[in-house]
Amino acid sequence: MKKERTLVVVKPDGVQRSLIGEIIKRFERSGLKLAGMKMMVADPAFIEKHYTIDPEWRRITGEKTIKGYRDKGQTPPSEDPHEITGIILGHLKTFMTSGPVVAMVWEGVHAVKIVRKLTGSTEPLSSDVGTIRGDYVIDSYQLADIDKRAIRNLLHASGTVDDAHKEIELWFKKEELIDYKLVQDKVLYDVNLDGILE
Length: 198
Ligand code: GDP
Ligand code: MG
Known about the structure:
GO terms for molecular function: nucleoside diphosphate kinase activity. The protein is about 45% helix and about 10% strand. With about 200 residues, the chain is α+β, with helices and mostly antiparallel strands. The two termini are about 30 Å apart.
């Protein structure tokens, strides 16, 4: 439980906005531990693999998007979830390969949920204030759709523990991840905080 790991990828817009350090800072100060990090330029096939790692992603994202249009009283571009996801995936491939990205693995108790909480919801227009997406970026599905591009929301964060496992395996070799102790682990995880007072 204490060793849960999750994948974060600073997307090309995050790198171009000079927010790599700020994003790292948000996770680092939470108490999570950085287990691995690298900068790379991804290719379209790799990005497709990343987004389709969950075999249900196409259906779920398609259905979610259709519902999003309906909730706003708008007509979705298609009634077929897979067709919608095809368009989104195309835009994501263009966007995610447009420049360098920074991939990292964060470790700690409830890492997946904590990182999602600090990241904020997918659409910056409605991401909470105080989250990375809520604080540092303005964009909306509406604008992204008009401009026929992916939404610019600075970073990716694994959605579930299962996705995190698969995504980390895709992005990192075993030897690129480091097991080590942080001095602060004691304060975060030890049952008895003894040995502080002299
Ligand atoms: P995330 O985990 O918060 O990034 O969101 P998802 O895993 O649901 O979606 C992955 C990516 O697909 C997002 O970062 C968006 O770029 C895109 N996406 C997801 N849902 C929608 C949507 O309803 N409309 C549009 N235009 N793009 C979407
Ligand atoms: Mg996701």
